[in-house]
């Protein structure tokens, strides 16, 4: 058991006489901020004493008296208003390190009750190339799969592709009207992507042209309201000041919308070819939608085209997944579930859950104005219907105990309604969870775009990262490449550094926050980056090459750790905390807990390596102990990064 679990296990029954559920109090046992006082600190005595109307210090003393940590903790003290400080016995820590050395799993236990867990992630809408918006779901979802697999669960990583949506209508329309046959023969996917972009651009053009006068009159009206209010405002009136602020904001965002609309319109008008195409197809948006509708109704020609396009689109995204080292257990896109949708709706109706409202079939939920629409007025099924059919399939065919949806925070409302509907529909035993995440932003704090305003393609992002990593590898430690590496190896290293940097930069942020994409920060060789940890790993590889030690011997019980310096003990304790880290990552699916742990471990290692000789240590027992610590550190880095989908190398 890891140190924190030992403390919690001891504390847990002691709460019995005070509270029903000790969980929130047990969560108040944490690693100590200041290691002067101990290794862990418990802060629950203050809130608990308040609740019970007791003296917190006395309460803390009561707990400490009853604890039985002889042989485990060297000291347990109460400090200040009632903090309990735990300091572990070094011998006890050393035995835990001994167990870890000999355990392939580095003391991370398998789940007591393995479950069948579906991780629904990545899920791009195919037919358009993958872009930076797909990065987060792909990287976070893949990490969750890797960790759950490692814990012994039955995991199905499922790529729920958007392969049946309106984008296919756009491509089909493009194919029928704007195809360049030569390009299609040579590079079909690129040609399809061009067609998608073109049809999208022309549809948007007409919508924007129609919207501009409306925007202008709204701007005029808002500006007028603003002046009126400014004239009569009473500066002491809070309500009025608030209204003024709101008007100013509204005006600014309306102006921004107008500007962006005008820019997009100008792009089309500025190109004779685009302008001619736009003029020739004023109704393009409706016609593209009709192509989608025809496809959905089983139109032979459109189905044939769809069947021809889909494999091409999938092959294109698979190239990206391969570069990212992401493998799915299944790819069951939206199209797979189409045959089941009619039954979903009729079943919901039969059970009295769905009813007609303004021509659409809807499920209403109390406290929610917006209904969950499962069939539209024109008879079409929706994203929601597909998701319901998918839940049924996953429960009945895959025997899922839980489904994790790694999807953008903007779909929060959809999942809330989906989960409520599924629950009422009879799928109330399955644990459904939206693992939501924020947006990748550019320097301007807006969604990350290229200079021309396009979304950033994932392929080109990967290329650039590898290129930049190559410069770092070529620069080596002192402006020349590591002489141990030939050209081909340097390229391999650049690839794992470049890919690692992108993944790590994404994973290290709290998934719910937005983050700013920054090349310099994410490829820094010191700091909270994959590169830093990969370098630390390679440095340990270098130590072993120089010493010529037999690493398998370091994993047997003939090699023991001794603490002769505070830095050795600190590193040892940090290493033992690997199991605690993984446990807390999965408790709320937060990979940033693992990156933070690896970063701290790299810092502990750097401190240890700065204070303690390894190669030149004269005392053979101390040298052996330090080599064991090096070996364990390297294994924690390798295993930790692998769980994040990031590779390591012995030489950099
Ligand atoms: N294709 C969807 C999108 O791009 C994401 C799908 C997420 N998964 C799901 N089961 N709804 O927005």
Automatic annotation (TrEMBL):
UniProt keyword terms in alphabetical order: Aminoacyl-tRNA synthetase, ATP-binding, Coiled coil, Cytoplasm, Ligase, Nucleotide-binding, Protein biosynthesis
One Gene Ontology MF term: arginine-tRNA ligase activity
EC number: 6.1.1.19
Cellular localisation: Cytoplasm
CDD domains referenced in this protein's UniProt entry, alphabetically: ArgRS_core
InterPro entries: aa-tRNA-synth_I_CS (IPR001412), Arg-tRNA-ligase (IPR001278), Arg-tRNA-synth_N (IPR005148), Arg-tRNA-synth_N_sf (IPR036695), ArgRS_core (IPR035684), DALR_anticod-bd (IPR008909), Rossmann-like_a/b/a_fold (IPR014729), tRNAsynth_Ia_anticodon-bd (IPR009080)
Coiled-coil intervals, chain numbering: 212-264
Catalytic activity: tRNA(Arg) + L-arginine + ATP = L-arginyl-tRNA(Arg) + AMP + diphosphate
Superkingdom as given in the UniProt entry: Bacteria
A Gene Ontology biological process term: arginyl-tRNA aminoacylation
Chain span(s) of sequence motif 'HIGH' region: 124-134
Manganese found in the keyword field: no
Chief localization: cytoplasm
Arginyl tRNA synthetase N-terminal domain ranges (all copies): 5-88
Domain DALR anticodon binding: 533-652
GO cellular component: cytoplasm
Recorded family membership: Belongs to the class-I aminoacyl-tRNA synthetase family.
Subunit architecture: Monomer.
HAMAP family recorded: Arg_tRNA_synth (MF_00123)
Family matches, as PANTHER family: ARGININE--TRNA LIGASE, CYTOPLASMIC, ARGINYL-TRNA SYNTHETASE
Protein name per Swiss-Prot or TrEMBL: Arginine--tRNA ligase
UniProt source species: Polystyrenella longa
Gene for this chain: argS
């Amino acid at each position: 058991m890891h140190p924190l679990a030992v403390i919690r296990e001891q504390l847990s029954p002691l709460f019995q006489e005070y509270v029903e559920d000790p969980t929130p109090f047990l969560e108040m046992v944490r690693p100590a901020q200041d290691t002067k006082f101990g290794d862990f600190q418990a802060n629950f005595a203050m809130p608990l004493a308040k609740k019970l109307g007791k003296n917190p210090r006395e309460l803390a003393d009561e707990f400490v008296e009853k604890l039985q940590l002889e042989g485990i903790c060297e000291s347990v003290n109460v400090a200040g208003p009632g903090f309990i400080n735990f300091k572990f016995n070094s011998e006890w820590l050393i035995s835990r390190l001994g167990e870890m050395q000999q355990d392939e799993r580095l003391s991370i236990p398998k789940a007591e009750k393995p479950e069948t867990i579906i991780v629904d992630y990545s899920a791009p809408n195919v037919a358009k190339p993958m872009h930076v918006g797909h990065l987060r779901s792909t990287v976070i979802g893949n990490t969750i799969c890797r960790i759950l697999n490692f814990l012994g669960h039955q995991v199905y990583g499922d790529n729920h592709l958007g392969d049946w949506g309106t984008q296919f209508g756009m491509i089909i329309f493009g194919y029928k009207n704007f195809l360049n046959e030569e390009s299609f023969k040579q590079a079909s996917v690129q040609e399809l992507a061009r067609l998608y972009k073109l049809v999208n651009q022309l549809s948007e053009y007409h919508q924007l042209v129609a919207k501009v006068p409306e925007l202008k009159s709204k701007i005029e009206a808002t500006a007028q309201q603003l002046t009126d209010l400014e004239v009569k405002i009473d500066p002491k009136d809070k309500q009025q000041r608030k209204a003024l602020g709101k008007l100013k904001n509204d005006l600014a965002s309306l102006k921004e919308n107008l500007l962006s609309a005008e820019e997009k319109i100008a792009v089309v008008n500025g190109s004779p070819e685009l302008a001619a195409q736009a003029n020739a197809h004023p109704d393009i948006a409706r016609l593209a939608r009709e192509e989608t509708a025809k496809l959905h109704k089983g139109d032979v020609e459109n189905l044939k085209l769809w069947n021809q396009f889909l494999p091409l689109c999938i092959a294109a995204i698979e190239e990206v997944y391969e570069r990212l080292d992401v493998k799915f257990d299944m790819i069951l896109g939206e199209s797979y579930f189409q045959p089941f949708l009619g039954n979903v709706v009729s079943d919901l109706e039969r059970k009295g859950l769905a009813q007609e409202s303004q021509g659409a079939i809807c499920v209403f939920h109390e406290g929610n104005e917006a209904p969950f629409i499962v069939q539209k007025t024109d008879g079409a099924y929706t994203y929601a219907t597909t998701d319901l059919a998918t839940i049924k399939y996953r429960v009945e065919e895959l025997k899922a105990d839980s489904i994790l949806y790694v999807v953008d925070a903007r779909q929060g409302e959809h999942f809330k309604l989906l989960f409520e509907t599924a629950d009422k529909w009879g799928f109330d035993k399955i644990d459904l969870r939206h693992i939501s995440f924020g947006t990748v932003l550019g320097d301007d704090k807006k969604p990350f775009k290229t200079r021309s305003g396009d979304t950033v393609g994932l392929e080109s992002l990967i290329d650039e990262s590898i290129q930049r990593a190559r410069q770092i590898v070529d620069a080596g430690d002192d402006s020349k490449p590591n002489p141990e590496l030939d050209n081909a190896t340097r390229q391999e290293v650049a690839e794992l550094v470049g890919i690692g940097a992108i993944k790590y930069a994404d994973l290290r942020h709290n998934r719910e926050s937005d983050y700013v994409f920054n090349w310099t920060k994410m490829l820094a060789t010191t700091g909270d980056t994959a590169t830093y940890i990969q370098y630390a790993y390679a440095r340990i590889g270098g130590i072993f090459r120089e010493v010529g030690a037999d690493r398998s011997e370091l994993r047997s019980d003939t090699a023991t750790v001794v603490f002769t310096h505070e830095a050795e003990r600190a590193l040892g304790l940090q290493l033992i905390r690997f199991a605690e880290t993984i446990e807390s990552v999965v408790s709320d699916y937060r990979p940033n807990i693992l990156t933070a742990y690896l970063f701290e471990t790299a810092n502990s290692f750097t401190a240890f390596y700065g204070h303690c000789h390894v190669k030149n240590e004269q005392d053979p027992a101390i040298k052996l102990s330090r080599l064991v610590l090096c070996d364990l550190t390297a294994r924690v880095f390798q295993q930790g990064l692998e769980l994040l989908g990031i590779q390591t190398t012995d030489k950099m």
